[in-house]
Amino acid sequence: MKRARLSILLALACAACGAATVPVTEPSEPEAEPPPRYAVALRFEEGEPSPEGTPRTRVSLVRIAPDGERSVSELRVEDGACYHRDEPGVLIAGVCWWAGSGARYVIRREGESIIALRAEATGDDTYGELTELTRIDVPAEAALDLLGAR
């Protein structure tokens, strides 16, 4: 009887100390690398005034690659001031305006391209058809950091 009790106590002590079977873990797949991150900006910089004294803004599309390489595409020099604005369905949008005329800029993504588009103002907050100005390459799987007001 003593021996049976001792065996039971010994079995309980072993179970309490973690003598249970070690769980088998399946080898896991290596974690996938995160996609590359690119920064994209619609940049507005003060330009030289016109001979008549009209202020001007240089408008550029900027891409910054993960390694820090910058690609700058100058789009236009616009009369007046330019500013970013929220616009649904686009990456970045902006407007340039001076004395009743201006332009609208839109930056979109299509596959492996970032596309800059521009439309002439036709009235107060109305614009004509968007026309493509330039494209820059960005891998389709790349994550984007958008630089500009949103």
Question: What can you see in these coordinates?
Answer:
This protein has 150 residues and is mainly beta. The protein has one domain (37-147). It has one helix spanning 2-16; strands at 37-47, 56-64, 70-79, 81-84, 92-98, 101-110, 113-123, 126-127, 131-137, 143-147. Strands 4, 5, 6, 7, 8 and 9 form a 6-stranded antiparallel sheet that branches. The radius of gyration is 31 Å and the shape is elongated. Mean pLDDT is 85; it is low at 3-17.
Task: From the structure above, extract its key features.
4-stranded mixed β-sheet, mainly beta, 150 residues, 6-stranded antiparallel β-sheet, single chain, elongated
Straight-line distance between termini: 80 Å
Give the biggest sheet.
Answer: 6 strands, antiparallel
Give the SSE string.
HEEEEEEEEEE
Count of helical stretches = 1
- In the residues, how many domains can be counted? 1
Q: Supply Rg.
A: 31 Å
Shape: elongated
Structural classification = mainly beta
Total beta strand runs = 10
What percentage of the residues does DSSP assign to strands (E)? over 45%
Kindly state the mean pLDDT as a whole number?
85
Q: pLDDT under 50 segments (min length 5)?
A: 3-17
> Roughly what percent helix?
10-25%
Write a brief structural summary.
This protein has 150 residues and is mainly beta.
Question: Helices, strands, pairings?
Answer:
Blueprint: H1 2-16, E1 37-47, E2 56-64, E3 70-79, E4 81-84, E5 92-98, E6 101-110, E7 113-123, E8 126-127, E9 131-137, E10 143-147
Parallel strand pairs: 1-10
Antiparallel strand pairs: 1-2, 2-3, 4-5, 5-6, 6-7, 7-8, 7-9
